[in-house]
Structures are given as structure tokens and as C-alpha cells.
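Standup notes, structure subgroup. Blocker cleared on the zinc ion input:
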Amino acid sequence: MFFAASINCIDGRVQSPITEFIKNNGKVDYVDVITVPGCDKLLAERGDDFALDLIKRSVEISVAKHGSRCVYISGHDDCAANPADKETHLAQIRKAVRLISSWNPAVRVIGLWVEETWQVEEITELSDVS
Ligand SMILES: [Zn+2]
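Run returned:
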């Protein structure tokens, strides 16, 4: 049985699209989901130590206990907690990818964008990670 981890918004509209995308594209059976309102903004700006620590510990459990080798971080259109334009979201997601990668270099971190029709697209180039 294979697991991946997903850090995504609490928004009920994105849960199924993201989980299905990860199961299909990441070839995993289960997705450990870590929900935080506007997680792309929070991770990019590192504004809340408590929330960051909780996310980090959740990822560590998924990696250590479920053997997750991929962590997905996403942002989405019409986000109540992070009402930014798409360009801002994408920049935040890329920053978040770098931060999560720095926690555990052995894990692959992938950024996702959920657009207004709830289609999910992969946005992060690995070469973008510095
Ligand atoms: Zn949201």
C-alpha cells in the first residue's frame, strides 16, 4: 500500500479533486490530508509558528509511518482564506515547495493549482527548487 501526503486548504470543494488527482498521478492508494485555511499563503509567508509546526509534524508522521515519498502542496481559485490572484497563488506555492523540501530533502514536493472548474494541474518544476 502506497501513501502520499497533501497539504491543502480546508475548502470542501477541493478535497475530492485533489485526492483523486494525487491517487491517479502519484500512483498511490491513500492520501494523508493536512488541511489548513489558505495553506499556500501561510507556508510562503511563514507567519504562524504553531500552524507551521503542526504541518511539519503531520508531514513527518506521513513520511515516517506511512512511507510517503511525495508531498503535495496546493492553492486554489476563490480561496476564502487567501483571496489573491492566480499569479500570487502560484508564487506562494513555489515558495511553499521550497520550504517543505528543506524539511526533508529525500521527499519529492509537488505544487498543485486547482482552477475555477476544479481541475487540478501540476505547476512546479523541480528545477525551480533552490
Ligand atoms: Zn481556500
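Discussed briefly. The longest helix spans residues 49-66.
Next: hand off to the docking folks.
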